[in-house]
Amino acid sequence: MAETRTITPPDDDLSPGERLPLGRRFRIVLVLGLLTALGPLTIDMYLPSLPTITTDLATSAAAVQLTLTGTLAGLAFGQLLIGPLSDAFGRRWPLLAGIAVHVLASVFCVVAPNVAVLGTLRVLQGLGAAAAAVVAMAMVRDLFSDRAAARLFSRLMLVVGVAPILAPTVGGLVLNWTSWRGVFVVLTVAGVTIMAVSALVLPETLPAAKRRNGGVLGTVRDYGRLLTDRVYVGLILVAGLAMAALFAYVSGSSYVFQDGFGMSEQQFALTFAGGAVGLIGATQFNVRLLRRWTPQQIMSGSLLAGLGFGLVFLVLAATGIGGLAGILIPLWLVLATVGLAMPNAPALALSRHGEAAGTAAALLGAVQFGVGALAAPLVGVLGVGAVSMAVVVFGGMLAATLVYFLVVQPHRLPSGRPEPVAAVVH
């Protein structure tokens, strides 16, 4: 039987999650990583099968691309919906219900008769994946605070970085053995597995006394209060603008390196992996940096460095100086600075609103995802090429830096001691 205890951090500043036994904490973090992976797997695993789907369903490439847009829309809207629900009813039931929706949608995707049905089901898949993403962030805030939360977000960023790289590869391997429908069979199995381990391992981290039951009006008030917090809004914008730089790289890199520099598919895959290694490595190095510096200090340094590297990238792309190396080196360095910024911005933002962590995490995810996703079409609008990608990358870093120093004003943020947090333990 679960009991609710209010844990007040002692002088050693340990958060509730850090006070759990090591083995149990490891299991919880592992499952939170699986929840974080569900969204990238849902988005990216079926990408290699898009041409096959177009042929099999006798439709256009544009119509099939809309099924991807539907998934992204479900992810964005779902976070705004499920975040407040998790604040009102606790974390576990909205999480398990969302994953169940994902599983059912995946099952029906296997037998989808046309692209319209497939697109609708992909929206539902996105909604289910959103539950996993937003509840995972809210649970981190329930259990950890300040540097502990930033360290855990760094670990989860490892999953976010690796999953989109591995997912298309897994999808391609599945296509070697079966049709595109088999990809959704794999997603079904993944959803069932994640739902089972979540039910077995994850405790309820939000006790009944801390839940918010204001209904629709209460949710609107919560969102309104969040939007009036200048620092919180600034931090989620910084997270989204940093993500925009990353999305610009993802959307434009194949055209730049394959069309512009004549790379083969294998060479491009290695080049893309090199950027991912820099990004992921920086998120893990962030854990070591947090032993000495605060998240605010790391954010300040990483954004200023990213702005400088972005400017070098733009100049070299525009002048052609340095050739391929002149593009890759500053680009990879920008990605590394993004890897340092991305875990710390959510940690700082969510630390301000522990009383509505689900709603705060939902708005953070929706803004981060929405602002970042705008970068992909923007690269194409400017004209596919190294210069257009560099403009968006530099623009994202410039905007993020300006928002951080002018709106967030990190020098005014408190150094932060963990506040008393209610946690449910078994």
From TrEMBL:
Membrane-topology descriptor: Multi-pass membrane protein
Keywords per UniProt: Cell membrane, Membrane, Transmembrane, Transmembrane helix, Transport
Top-rank lineage group of the source organism: Bacteria
Places the protein is found: Cell membrane
Pfam family, one: MFS_1
Transmembrane segments annotated in the record for this chain: 26-43, 63-83, 95-117, 123-144, 156-177, 183-202, 231-250, 270-290, 302-321, 327-349, 361-380, 386-407
Main location: membrane
Residues covered by the Major facilitator superfamily (MFS) profile domain: 28-413
InterPro entries: Efflux_drug-R_Bcr/CmlA, MFS, MFS_dom, MFS_trans_sf, Sugar_transporter_CS
Keyword Cell membrane: yes
UniProt similarity note: Belongs to the major facilitator superfamily. Bcr/CmlA family.
Protein name as annotated: Multidrug effflux MFS transporter
